[in-house]
Amino acid sequence: MNLVKGSFYVFFQTYKKQNVIFWSVLLAIVLFSFFVVLTLVQDTFFMIILSVPIYIFFVTMGSKWLTSTFSYFMKFGLTRLQYVGVTGLFFLCWSLVTALFSTGLHQGIFFLNRVLELEQFMIFHPLYFINPTIAFHFMFLFDFVLLFLCLLCGLLLNYIFFKFGLVGGYSFIGLMVFIPILAIALKWYIPLFDVVGEITIVSFCGVIALVSIVLYTFIAFCLRKLSAVTG
Amino acid sequence: MMNIQVRNVTKKYKDKVALNKLNFTIEGPKIVGFLGHNGAGKTTFLNILSGIIPTTDGELLVNGNPVFNTAQVLRDICFIAETGNFQQDMTVEQSLKANRYFYPKWDQELARKLLKVFALPPKSKVRNLSKGMSSALGIITGLASRAPITICDEPYIGLDVAARSKFYDLLIEEQEVQPRLFILSTHLIDEVSNLFDEVLILDEGELLLQKDYLEWDETILAIRGSAEEVANVAKDHEVIYEQVFMNEKMAVLYLKDDWSNNNAITSERVSLQELLVYLSKQQKARYAI
């Protein structure tokens, strides 16, 4: 139990500053937009997307994870398995809290919109592409699994850089960029969009969760003999 | 009682062999000086001993259990490296609080006392600490961890003479209160050599010698004389270093046999520090070739 408490304490302290900066900037943008809509503009329509910056932020945080914490925890005498365990647990909690906060923020802005009768201000969520009247709990569920996946994607990227250096890391990024280009060229996105459009939100979240579990298992396998000193 | 068994431990980094089939045993409690010139493989070995990196070949056992990825062994080891021991964005106080969760025998009272001894500001962030202060934080962690195996790799970089002296006093005091296996790797050998119970010297990734420090003078000796006489005497022992100046030859010997005085040559004591200087010179000469 001490191990989990201690790890959470260190993770929290390590990422506190980045979180405070990110949320301050994001909330400041929301408040500023509200202020602009309420006071300065009358006929212009404002739309804010909060979720996408949060997803990007989570990928970024995941991509620094090993570099910032791995050797530190190894010096504390954690085994790789323990490290992977506490990392997964922290990722779950972090995603859960952020999804709750983000969904709450969406609902709060909707509420304010209704109270203030603002029609030219809207907060957008990627799920509206699938269903524009999505319920609160589905939005929460989707954000939760997607944020967890974002952290894991960042962690995988960090692992590639950590293990294979700059050349390996950038080659991997190149490959990841090439795949969507290929997908567009070969029109793979059509069946993909068909599937996404047809399945329910819960099934969609289930697929993301499954991908996350596979990715997490793969990363755990990769870390089991990773040296904490690069070179 | 702690027992470290090193069996054929080899570590390779691409083409470079950092450690080559190391074999030795260390038993504690005691203070062990782990020495060698730059690049001898000390830090690599200490990293393996603390489970930070895996071996390429061979095994390292602590009380019969492998170190790498074994939780019950690793929780008994505290490793203070030269740098990077703490999270930069955490304060001194937070770093010590974090230690409390990971070291089962952590002594918070001792940590508080040492914080005052080294005059560290508890609210200061690690990134704002000077090199010496950072080292002091490492020393506090090492001592207060009360880990049965405490490893310090160059623990006092940037510390002034007074603080270093304080560290030596604390080390002796701590060893009396709670004896454990301290492994110290340092280049400030003259200052600290009197603390050692045992000395291990690595050279080019291989164990050059392992001796009780009390037996040092009966083990390492420098001899001077004519080339023939020195060669004649040296043939029964291992030559660690040799040089010729004018008509005189000097050789540093690792005595393999009983030493008997010879009137044709002069013999003199070699301090630990001097031996490390000779080893370093020898290494440079090798690379020059």
Question: How is this structure best described in words?
Answer:
The complex is a heterodimer of chains A (231) and B (289). Chain A has 231 residues and is mainly alpha-helical. Chain A has seven helices and two strands, in the order αβαααβααα. In chain A, strands 1-2 form a two-stranded parallel sheet. In chain A, α4 (80-116) packs antiparallel against α7. The longest helix of chain A is centred in the last third of the chain and has 50 residues, at 136-185. The two termini of chain A are 34 Å apart. Chain B is 33% helix and 32% strand. Chain B has nine helices and 14 strands. Chain B has helices spanning 42-49, 71-74, 92-102, 108-117, 131-145, 161-177, 189-192, 227-234, 272-288; strands at 2-13, 16-28, 30-36, 57-62, 65-66, 77-80, 149-153, 181-185, 198-203, 206-212, 220-225, 238-245, 248-254, 266-269. In chain B, the strands form three sheets. A six-stranded mixed β-sheet of chain B has the order 6-7-8-3-9-10, with helices on both faces. A four-stranded antiparallel β-sheet of chain B has the order 2-1-4-5, covered by helices on one side. The radius of gyration of chain B is 21 Å and the shape is globular. Classes of the chains: A mainly alpha (231), B alpha/beta (289). Chains A and B meet through α1, α3 and α4 of A and β6 and α3 of B.
